[in-house]
Design brief:
This protein folds into two domains: 2-117, 3-Layer(aba) Sandwich (Cobalt-precorrin-4 Transmethylase, domain 1), CATH 3.40.1010; 122-218 and 240-276, Methyltransferase, Cobalt-precorrin-4 Transmethylase, Domain 2 (2-Layer Sandwich). It is built from seven helices and ten strands. It has helices at residues 18-26, 35-41, 61-81, 98-108, 122-130, 165-174, 260-276; strands at residues 2-7, 29-32, 50-52, 83-88, 113-117, 141-144, 156-160, 177-183, 193-195, 208-214. Strand 2 (29-32), helix 2 (35-41) and strand 3 (50-52) form a beta-alpha-beta unit. It is elongated. The chain binds S-adenosylmethionine. This is Cobalt-factor II C(20)-methyltransferase.
């Protein structure tokens, strides 16, 4: 019948959409590409209905194609005879493993129907977690910044895969950007960190993004006048932490480090998930 690609959201089980949860509850089998996505899915689906697909820890394209053909061969009959779901963190169509599966099914099992249930992507969730507003009239670009890259150009950027924060930071600041980082936002595994201090994130964690804004931008939406204080009442503005776990600092200051006892568990979860996403995840701290 159908394979559903279900976006699980950034990692907290209650950020799965109502439709996504219904599909997971009704599916005969739910495939998860990594341990993080599996831990979210099992909040909604009994372990007995979780199916695993194996991915090699490689960037070799031939090997990856072989792995995706094998995964599609496993999943196609289950989707043909019933309902199967394949989960990904965030949204299935944003930097996700699901694209590989969809293309492989289309090539080798074209009779299998595919539907996508969108998920809350880190592309949008970062705004609330970092206290950023993308006001009407402004533009924003999505970039990757792995291995210390510092892409520049657009006025505002959300950067994914920020695996060497101090090096990326230096390039962005030199190019005239203010930068804020978010690590493990709305994730039930690992500690959420929001900070503008690159040294607080010197250790490597694949689930790190950045928001970079050119210094001196002034979009002036109508209500920006309230920020100047000229038209405000005496009441202070309401402050929200955007639903981020209490460990997050909303003043963008430095955060404490993760519990050492769980650090290696988190690192191995990160490696498995990152490699399933097609990333070679380096061992150990970045510096
Ligand atoms: C392969 S992409 C997956 C994106 C996902 N499909 C989505 O829509 O959010 C992984 C990158 O997304 C970012 N990311 C995803 N979830 C995140 C989270 N909960 N907190 C911080 N960054 C996250 C990180 O930059 C990470 O390196």
């Amino acid at each position: 019948m159908t394979l559903y690609g279900v976006g699980l959201g950034p990692g907290d089980a209650d950020l799965v959409t109502v439709r996504g949860r219904r599909v997971l509850e009704e599916a005969d089998v739910v495939y998860s590409p990594g341990r993080l996505s599996r831990s979210v899915a099992t909040e909604h689906v009994p372990e007995a209905r979780i199916g695993d697909v194996d991915f090699p820890m490689t960037r070799d394209e031939e090997e990856l194609r072989r792995a995706w053909k094998a995964a599609a061969a496993e999943i196609a009959p289950r989707a043909r005879d019933g309902t199967a779901a394949f989960v990904t963190l965030g949204d299935p169509n944003v930097y996700s493993t699901f694209g590989h599966l969809r293309r492989t099914l289309a090539a080798f099992h074209p009779d299998v129907g595919v539907e996508v249930v969108p998920g809350v992507s880190a592309v949008t969730a970062f705004t609330t977690a970092l206290g950023v507003e993308i006001a009407s009239g402004s533009s924003i670009a999505l970039r990757e910044a792995a291995r210390g890259a510092s892409p520049t150009g657009p006025d505002r950027m959300v950067l994914f895969k920020v695996t060497d924060v101090p090096v990326t930071h230096e390039g962005l600041v030199d190019a005239g950007y203010d930068v804020v980082y978010g690590r493990r936002l709305y994730m039930q595994q690992g500690e959420t960190v929001v900070t503008d201090d690159p040294e607080a994130l010197a250790d490597r964690d694949y689930y790190t993004l950045a928001y970079a804004e050119k210094r001196g931008l002034d979009p002036r939406p109508a209500t920006a006048a309230f920020d100047d204080g000229a038209e405000t009442e005496s009441e202070p503005a309401a402050h929200t932490d955007g639903g981020v776990e209490p460990t997050a600092q909303t003043d963008w200051g430095a955060e404490s480090t993760a519990d050492a006892a769980t650090a290696s568990d988190i690192a191995s979860v990160e490696r498995a998930e990152g490699e399933a996403c097609g990333d070679a995840v380096r061992e150990g701290p970045s510096r």
